UniProtKB/TrEMBL annotation:
Its EC number(s): 2.7.7.65
GO biological processes: cell adhesion involved in single-species biofilm formation; negative regulation of bacterial-type flagellum-dependent cell motility
InterPro entries in the record: Diguanylate_Cyclase (IPR050469), GGDEF_dom (IPR000160), Nucleotide_cyclase (IPR029787), Rev_trsase/Diguanyl_cyclase (IPR043128)
SMART domains according to UniProt: GGDEF
Pfam families for this protein: GGDEF
Name assigned to this protein: diguanylate cyclase
Coiled-coil ranges (or none): none
Species this protein is from: Comamonas terrigena
GO CC terms, sorted: plasma membrane
Amino acid sequence: MQILQNLVEMTGHRDHVRLEVSVLSTMQQLPHVTNVRALELSEQAEGTLIRPRTWLQDGEILSSDCEASSDQRGQPLHTLPPLAECIQQARSSARHSDGPHHHVLWLPVWMHNKARTCLEITQSRPFSTQRIEVLQGIFRVYQNYQSLLDYSERDALTGLLNRKTFDEQFIRFASLEANASVAAAPHSLSDEVPQQWLAVVDIDHFKQVNDRFGHLFGDEVLILVANLLRASFRTQDRIFRFGGEEFVILLRAASLKEAHQVFERFRKTVESHAFPQLGQITVSLGFTSTRLCSPVEILGQSDQALYYAKQHGRNQVCHYESLVAEGALGHQVAHDDVELF
Ligand SMILES: Nc1nc2c(ncn2[C@@H]2O[C@H](COP(=O)(O)OP(=O)(O)OP(=O)(O)O)[C@@H](O)[C@H]2O)c(=O)[nH]1
């Protein structure tokens, strides 16, 4: 009965992290469970890393509020061989016993053929068949509900994250970033601190595609561009379809140079892609650093850089602060210049 009540509570959430906290508290209440964690898997230059995103501490379930790439508690996936093998073979669970009172069960959350999260349950007794059935039952409800949440966060045409999700995630992220940067050094173009960049991408002369080939064909082009976006960025970078033929990318990069290179590489990928019937299409991209500004200002700055790219020949990447430093843009975007949220 307690489990049923917990399941009702679990499915009342509209947020991935709160749902995760809820499923872990449900599992933690089972007898002999000594620890529960949700591990996040992320692809980094040095290989797949795992870090605890939600965990049990002093009887309370806590969640990390920092980005995976800046979390010091990440460890290489290969340091947990049974889990690494389970992920590599796309299996639904793995188990490991480390002494008579330490038994671990891992349940990876598979979505779009990728496991980005894995639940970890530790018990002081070996897992009985019945216990595994109960845990897997709870896990299936949780996973189905995660899929529903995921579906509501995505754009139906391209499968990218939608504008609503951007508004929710970016406002939350920007307030975390603002708090973190209170003690940070003043911003300069040559800073080498890992930071986030926001780019607005717009397909050039897309209206002509629709006019010549029809709206349905235009939709196919949007899907192809979305696929190129997915292939060009890492899984921890977030890509949104913002509306129409406009996309937004949130990228983590160590320097302006690196961010510029990554965006430039994407521009070239689109330029050199052979689109059926169309041949070549191009994109313009405006980007800015997300530090020390409000979400409205950040979007406004990227939009200004994009507008500049469009006005100066299209098929190019423009960086807002560089344009301002060169005197190419008239003025910095103020709060009331743009109204987006
Ligand atoms: N096929 C399709 N077209 C869309 C969708 N959303 C917006 N569009 C079209 O995208 C086009 C955008 O055109 P504009 O913003 O005028 O500019 P453009 O032709 O892309 O030219 P520049 O941006 O100036 O390079 C319009 O024709 C819209 O109808 C969509 O979901 N599917």
